[in-house]
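Homework help thread (please don't just give me the answer)

Our assignment gives two proteins as sequence + structure token strings and asks us to describe the second one. The first is just a warm-up. Here they are:
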Amino acid sequence: MMAALEVPEARRTHTLPTVPGAVSEARRWAASVTAGMLDGEAAESLRLVVSELVTNALRHGSDGERIDLTVTPKPEFLCVQVTDDGPGLAPRPRALETDDNGGFGLFFVEQLTRRWGVTRENRRTRVWFELDYR
């Protein structure tokens, strides 16, 4: 029998600088605020998806000064948002198209999450995803 996972109701946000070290900082912070909420496989998926989205925010975002990473536990799943000052993208149903620099990242996001999407608000781009606890 699996132990019950701890699921607090608090939304947490961490602001990251737009520097390469933000990716590892984002991974560490997300892991720390979700400790006890996710099983091993879900925790690894969280680290991978956060790494991909923060990397994309650094690579494709504008010259903004910050990236906001928000974690919101819901009763059935974890919701995570990465918000930057970039122009955004139009997600495709097949996120498998690649370029010379790789480009498989959104395919992995699609495969590792229950769902994901992109929104624009106040001239900022938010990429969000939902992740099952188990």
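The one we have to describe:
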Amino acid sequence: MSTSLLLAALWVLAATGVAMLPMRRQFPPGVLLLAAAPVLIIWLGYDFGWIASLGALAAFVSMFRNPLRYYWRKWRGLETGFSPEDLK
């Protein structure tokens, strides 16, 4: 098994574990996973081709759809529909 595939599988297990944490504890490891994902997606694309990379991107967007939606709206200056009290 290639290193990129092994790390991608471990990334998925880590993301699943983080999703089971309480919301206030999800942020720090979630940000690390969010930052590591593009590197893994590009690496998978390099090793297995653009179709594998596209599949990994689809899985990533599916798993992180709410944080990505939040940051997209925040960067565009729109209402996020989220308040800091939601973390308590």
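TA reply:
I won't write it for you, but here's a hint about the kind of observation we're looking for: Residues 3-76 form one domain.
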